[in-house]
Automatic annotation (TrEMBL):
Keywords: Flavoprotein, Oxidoreductase. This is Thermophilic desulfurizing enzyme family protein. Residues 37-126 form the Acyl-CoA dehydrogenase/oxidase N-terminal domain. GO terms for molecular function: 3-methylbutanoyl-CoA dehydrogenase activity; flavin adenine dinucleotide binding. The keyword Flavoprotein applies. InterPro entries: Acyl-CoA_DH_C (IPR013107), Acyl-CoA_Oxase/DH_mid-dom_sf (IPR046373), AcylCo_DH-like_C (IPR036250), AcylCoA_DH/ox_N (IPR013786), AcylCoA_DH/ox_N_sf (IPR037069), AcylCoA_DH/oxidase_NM_dom_sf (IPR009100). Transmembrane segments: none annotated. Residues 259-400 form the Acyl-CoA dehydrogenase C-terminal domain. PANTHER family: ACYL-COA DEHYDROGENASE, ISOVALERYL-COA DEHYDROGENASE, MITOCHONDRIAL-RELATED. GO terms for biological process: L-leucine catabolic process. The keyword Cell division does not apply.
C-alpha cells in the first residue's frame, strides 16, 4: 500500500486474538461470534467512517474472530457452516459497521469461488491455502468494465487491464482476477497474491457510503498465473472443462453474491433502527405543539407507529432472507458433489428467491435508513451522532445494479413463469 495512504492500526484489536483463540463449534456459536464483532465495531463506527482510513485494523479483527474461515472445511480449520449461516453472520456484522459487513460478505463469496467453478483438486488446494493461512480475499471482478485481457504463455496465463471497482483489494492477501482468454469468448477466474508489483491500486474510493471497503480502481499489469490455477480449466488441453463451466451450476456464483448484497443491506437497516431506538429513548424530545402533548418522545403516537412499522417490515424481510438463504444452501448441499445434475429450472428457482429479497431489502432498507430521522429529531443529523452513515451505505451499494430490472425479472416469472437467463447480474 502506498505510504501516503492512512490506515487504521492493527494493534487496536490485538487483545481479541487471545480472547477469540477458541473457534466457534456450532452455528449458534458462530453467529454469537459475529454479534460480538458487530458490537466491537459499533462502538466507534461513526468516527471510523469519518476518518476514512484503510481498514487494516478491521480486517485484523475479522481474522482474530475466525469469521473468515466460517464456510471452509473443518479438515483445514474451517467452520464448515452452510451459506445460510454465512448470510446471517454477514447481516450481524453489518449491523455494527456496513463497510466491514460488506468486506466479510465479499470475502466469503470470493474465498469459495472454486466451489462453483473450480476442479475438485482446485477446490481442495484453494481451501487449504485460505483457511490455513487465515487469508482475506478481495476481488477485481466488475462486469461493467472491460474484461481483463488474458494471454497464454507456455504453462502460464498473463492478465492485463484495469478495473474501476475492486472491493477489498488494498487490504487483501489474495485477489480474484477474471478476464477473457485472447482469441476466445471464454472467461477465466484465478486467485493470485495481492502484494506484487503488477497489482497497482488507485486509492480513489472517496464515495458517500461504505467508505471503509476500499472499493476503488486497480491496474493489472503482466500478472502471471500457472494454467493449473485457471479455475475450471484443463491444464493439459488449455480448454474450459465442459463438465464444470458449461453447466447451470457454474452460474450459481451470481445468485450467491446477490444474496450477499441483500443480507448486508438488511444488516445495515436493522443496525440503523437499533441505533435510532437508543437515540430516541435517550435524546429525542417530545413535540410540545401537537395538541395531544406527551411528556416523553417514547409516548408519541407517530414515533411509536413509525418504529412499529419499520420493525414489522424488517422482521418480514429477515424471514424472506433466511428462506432464500436456506434455498441456496440446499442447492449447494444437494449438488455440490454432483454439479452436472442441477437443472436450469432449479437454478432459476433459486435465482428468483434471491431476486425477491433483493427487491424487498432494497426498498425496506432505503425507507428505514432515511425514515429514522423522522423519529429521532433534528439533533440526530449531527455528524457526531453518525446516523447518516446507515443511509449512505445502503444508498451507495443499492446502485450496484438497478433494482428495477429485478422487479421486471420477477414480473416475468410471476406472469409468464419464465426463469431468468443467467447473466453477470442474475
Amino acid at each position: 500500500m502506498a505510504a501516503n495512504v492512512p490506515a487504521s492500526d492493527e494493534a487496536v484489536y490485538a487483545s481479541y486474538q487471545a480472547k477469540w483463540a477458541t473457534q466457534p463449534d456450532s452455528s449458534d456459536a458462530w453467529l454469537a461470534r459475529a454479534r460480538e464483532v458487530s458490537e466491537v465495531l459499533s462502538q466507534d463506527a461513526a468516527q471510523r467512517d469519518q476518518d476514512n482510513k484503510s481498514p487494516r485494523a478491521e480486517i485484523a479483527l475479522l481474522k482474530h474472530s475466525g469469521l473468515l474461515k466460517l464456510l471452509g472445511p473443518k479438515k483445514y480449520g474451517g467452520g464448515e457452516q452452510p451459506w445460510s449461516v454465512g448470510y446471517q453472520a454477514i447481516r450481524e456484522v453489518a449491523k455494527g459497521d456496513g463497510s466491514i459487513g460488506m468486506l466479510l460478505a465479499y470475502h466469503l463469496l470470493w474465498s469459495t469461488t472454486a466451489n462453483v467453478v473450480g476442479t475438485p483438486e482446485q477446490i481442495e488446494r484453494t481451501h487449504e491455502l485460505i483457511i490455513k493461512n487465515n487469508y482475506f480475499v478481495g476481488g477485481a471482478v466488475n462486469p461493467r468494465d472491460s474484461d481483463l485481457k488474458i494471454t497464454s504463455d507456455g504453462d502460464h496465463i498473463v492478465f492485463n487491464g484495469a478495473k474501476f471497482f475492486n472491493t477489498g483489494g488494498v487490504v487483501s492477501d489474495l485477489t480474484v482476477l477474471e478476464g477473457v482468454l485472447e482469441g476466445t469468448e471464454d472467461h477465466i477466474f484465478a486467485l493470485v497474491e495481492t502484494r506484487q508489483p503488477g497489482i497497482k491500486f488507485a486509492h480513489n474510493w472517496h464515495n458517500i457510503g461504505l467508505r471503509l471497503t476500499e472499493s476503488g480502481g486497480v491496474k493489472i499489469e503482466n500478472i502471471r498465473v500457472p494454467w493449473s490455477d485457471a479455475l475450471g480449466w484443463d491444464e493439459a488441453t488449455k480448454k474450459p472443462r465442459e463438465d464444470i463451466l458449461k453447466i447451470p451450476f457454474a452460474s450459481l456464483l451470481l445468485p450467491t453474491i446477490q444474496l450477499v448484497f441483500s443480507n448486508f443491506y438488511l444488516g445495515i437497516a436493522i443496525g440503523a433502527l437499533e441505533f435510532a431506538s437508543k437515540y430516541t429513548v435517550g435524546n429525542t424530545r417530545a413535540w410540545p405543539f401537537g395538541g395531544d402533548n406527551k411528556e416523553s418522545a417514547t409516548d408519541e403516537f407517530y414515533i411509536l407507529e413509525r418504529y412499529g412499522n419499520f420493525f414489522a417490515h424488517l422482521r418480514a424481510a429477515e424471514a424472506l432472507a433466511d428462506r432464500a438463504g436456506e434455498h441456496i444452501s440446499s442447492v449447494y448441499s444437494k449438488y455440490g458433489s454432483n454439479r452436472a445434475s442441477l437443472t436450469p429450472e432449479e437454478r432459476g428457482e433459486a435465482a428468483e428467491w434471491v431476486a425477491s429479497i433483493k427487491v424487498v431489502a432494497t426498498d425496506v432498507g432505503l425507507r428505514v435508513t432515511s425514515g429514522v430521522f423522522e423519529v429521532t429529531g433534528a439533533r440526530a443529523t449531527s455528524l457526531k451522532v453518525g446516523l447518516d452513515r446507515f443511509w449512505r451505505d445502503i444508498r451507495t451499494h443499492t446502485l450496484h445494479d438497478p433494482v428495477a430490472y429485478k422487479n421486471r425479472e420477477l414480473g416475468r416469472f410471476a406472469l409468464l413463469h419464465e426463469y431468468p437467463e443467467a447473466s453477470w447480474y442474475t
